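Batch manifest, entry 17 of 40.
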Amino acid sequence: MTTRGAASPGPSAKSIVVVGSLNMDLVLRVSRAPAAGETLMGRQFSVVPGGKGANQAVACARLGAPVTLIGSLGADAFGAQLRQAMAGDGIDTTHVVTDDRSATGVAMIQVDDDGQNRIVVVSGANATLEPIHVDAASAAIDRAALMILQLEVPLATVEHAVDRAVRAGLPVLLNPAPVLALPDRLWPKIDYLIPNESEASALAGIPVTDPSSAMEAAWILRSRGVRHVLVTLGRQGVVIVGPDDARHLAARSVQAVDTTAAGDTFIGGVAVGLREGMTLWEAADLGQRAAALCVTRHGAQPAIPFRAEL
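Output type: structure tokens
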């Protein structure tokens, strides 16, 4: 059984299990965000696979790990396209269910000339993912090295999946996005919590704007029982606080054109690095290298790099 708090030592055949959302991203390229009541002419529209769960699964797969995805799609064209896209990256979609009562989730994403994004998500079938779907994947969970979760599926399902991972001895990596109030019982079961600055602000109750305030927020979150907290700060890098050390890792300097999947790519890099037996600092560096390349490209999943590109 894997010891909680550390991924399996060294490369192995063990997979990463991702429990999370699949969305079709409807992407608008704009010069800037429109003001309230303003009509703004866009420059480009595209439809690309996305969703935090799917993005993180793709990042793990492209960076070299076998991946099992647990999620829910609608019985529609978007659902079929997303399932095909996951299979194209070699992701095991056996436990991605189809709900014929719901539409596939969608995200409307505005990307401005500075590469910043504004996202509105309609959950659709993601809201139908239930604990029984997690239980149906028990064999895959028992064979895994690590579990990744986000909050674009029901919190009850996330809690159940975390409990199932703990019973299997798996480290739990939670990306608390979109940010929600987490129950007290959940915090001590999280081995790696990876919020961005706005999520860290909401969870810790203090403004997070720079490495110093991110460090303070990370200590607050660790005090609730989380083993390791990694606060991502975009171009300001990442702050990491663990049981024995606290560090700020500077970001690589690149010209960002689209930050849509940067956080998901970073998380994929961290998870893959941990699975391969890297230290947390080495795994975070892998995530930063992958995210730095991701933001130089347009789109969510189309921008996520392969390991050989790093």
